[in-house]
Design brief:
alpha/beta, 7 strands, 7-stranded mixed β-sheet, disordered C terminus, about 240 residues, single chain
Length: about 240
Amino acid sequence: MLYAFLKPLVAALMRLYFRLEAHGVEHVPYSGPVLLVSNHSSVLDPPVIGAVTPRQLSFLAKAELFRIPFFGGLIRRLNARPLRREGADAGALRGILRVLGENRVLLAFPEGTRGEEGVLRAPKAGVGMLAVLSGAPVVPVYVSGSGRAWPRGKNFPRPAKISVRFGPALSFSRREGSRERRDHYETISKVMMAAIAELKDQATGHDASPAVGGTGCASARSPLKYIQGRNGQHGNG
């Protein structure tokens, strides 16, 4: 398979060019379905996470990329799954749940699209829905440096240190009722971003807040420290 062939080559190049390093890889289960959720500031995020994750990844990419000649076919062969960003995409949801139902690893970005390096933005409810419907363990991931290495608007990457940090897995429970279910998905997505924010604090040497309960999660160790301000950054309380 192309993924298995390219992974060691890509990993070696990234360790050489970006001094890529990883922390907490032991938090990724070695078997069964896993939903990785990460911040997103660069097109480098999927390959750098894939390079340091011990299992093969499938990942979500905007549907427009699959219409680019050659590139669309390439990322599809590298386990990318198309996702329309506007409106509901029932077909994509079925395909994503099938990936997790086959005990594979799926990478998703709760923020939905790329942002600035070091800035965490408001999450979308859809990733919370994936966590609930699949029942898969959710492993938070924080990538630092990728936005400096290849920011939006630049044609080529530049040397910059990149690190990937994994946190303890979270699990989430179902909740009945259509309106309550929507609120539940949104709350779960915020808990995911809180877990990512905690990893960011660890990476930058900041103190983490104590855990806050009452989220409807079966196991949610991350604090609800994530606060959306005007610029979308997480605050300190």
